[in-house]
Amino acid sequence: HNSIRSEYTLIVYNRGLLLPISEFQNILKSATYSNSADEMTGTNRTVSISISENSTGIAYPSLEATVFIELFHTNDAPVLILNTFFQNIGDISNFLEYTEGQGTLQLAAAGTISLYDRDHDYLQRVTVVITNPKEPMDEILL
């Protein structure tokens, strides 16, 4: 059998020869949908399928069968990488040293921060938290 494939259409036919119904069943079972867009447009797609027989030189098409595909958007989480003095491989942990009385310690130096988000150009918030404070009255984030 031969096929004509375009961006939105797949037509399978056999010039001058009839194929068994089972062959077209196999063709339909192997038909797939794919969408590789980072940001899909819309919420669903409709796919129409029809068959026809042309044994007498006149095409007799079937009614269309319809497949509804509901699309679910996923939001890829943004990625933050801090490249400080030591980075624990396989983790996003970074280690800095602080000596008593040192003053302020820069958590991420300019040029060592990598931020990206596959599906958005803007971010809404940054949260910086000391998760294990030992001297709550003396430890602060600026």
Beta fraction: 25-35%
Annotation field: number of helices: 1
Strand order of the largest sheet: 1-2
Rounded to the nearest angstrom, the distance between the terminal CA atoms is: 70 Å
Would you write up a description of this structure?
This protein has 142 residues and is mainly beta. It contains one helix and ten strands, in the order ββαββββββββ. A two-stranded antiparallel sheet has the order 1-2. Strands 3-6 form a two-stranded antiparallel ribbon. The protein has a two-stranded antiparallel sheet with strand order 4-5. β8 and β9 form a beta hairpin. The longest helix has 10 residues. The radius of gyration is 30 Å and the shape is rod-shaped.
